[in-house]
Design goal:
Blueprint lengths: L1 H18 L9 H13 L3 H32 L1 H15 L7 H8 L3 H25 L3 H9 L4 H38 L5 H10 L3 H29 L1 H11 L1
Helix pairs in contact: 2-10, 3-4, 3-6, 3-8, 3-9, 5-6, 5-8, 6-8, 7-8, 8-9, 8-10, 9-10
Length: 249
């Protein structure tokens, strides 16, 4: 993997240098690395990163709470499912990114509109996976615990929710990255700060190397957020790891 990275970056650098390609068209990796270093150490990358991360985490947290709560209600209560599930399915077909300009117009250029964009984009993987997980619980386990006298809530807490956790975490994994995407797209539509706004500033002065540097930073942050969620999942849903090991044996 490291060898592939070195070959790709080295080839990119060589092609740009040999073909004398303008940095406005395709900057060399060496220039991008300098821009990334300067932006982090001397520039405005870290304050803007903090702004974007705040939007991302808030959007993810709200989407997670709403998605898991509504997903549980839809999966467990029939009249709730009949009342709101058709609207959830219908709204899911709407391209969420297309709503970003409207949300910025409605809620302003501050952080609120970016958080709402992040929530809108991240909500659906969570609710869909929550419903899927709860509805795919092993019915034999449900019958067994009910035969032991467990009520509806006890069955949900002891059997259905633990069984659905792998599905829920799969939705959360998608949601955390989508929250970052939603926050950046919201900043594209209009913002006073954030890494999305930083890309717009670089593009306006044709500093393509700077834009690449921000994109690399966003990619690293997205990957780190994914890793954090995977670590949490391994601690919370530890039995799936044990099952995988036993199955392999």
């Amino acid at each position: 993997m490291i060898a592939t990275f070195v070959v790709v970056v080295g080839g990119w650098e060589a092609v740009v240098r040999i073909a004398d390609i303008s940095a406005i068209v395709l900057p060399p990796p060496s220039l991008i690395a300098v821009k990334l270093y300067d932006g982090i150490v001397y520039g405005t990358f870290l304050p803007n990163l903090g702004y974007t991360l705040t939007e991302t985490v808030l959007g993810f947290a709200i989407a997670a709470v709403l998605g898991i709560t509504l997903g549980a209600l839809v999966a467990e209560i029939r009249w709730v499912r009949r009342a709101i599930y058709p609207y959830i399915v219908a709204f899911q077909t709407v391209p969420k990114i297309a709503l970003a300009p409207l949300l910025v117009i409605w809620f302003g250029f501050g952080m609120t509109s970016k958080v709402i964009v992040a929530v809108t984009v991240a909500f659906f993987p969570v609710i869909v996976n929550t419903i899927e997980g709860l509805q795919n619980t092993d019915h034999q386990r449900i019958d067994m615990i009910r035969a032991m006298g467990a009520g509806r809530f006890e069955t949900f807490r002891r059997v259905k929710l633990p069984s659905a956790l792998p599905y829920i975490f799969a939705g959360l994994d998608a949601a955390i990255v989508l929250s970052l995407l939603g926050a950046v797209v919201g900043e594209f539509m209009g913002s006073r700060a954030g890494l999305g706004n930083q890309i717009l500033i670089f593009n306006s002065v044709l500093d393509i190397a700077g834009s690449f540097a921000v994109l690399i930073l966003l990619s690293v942050i997205g990957f780190l957020l994914h890793l954090i969620l995977v670590m949490v999942q391994k601690r919370v849903v530890f039995w799936t790891q044990v099952h995988a090991v036993s199955s392999g044996a």
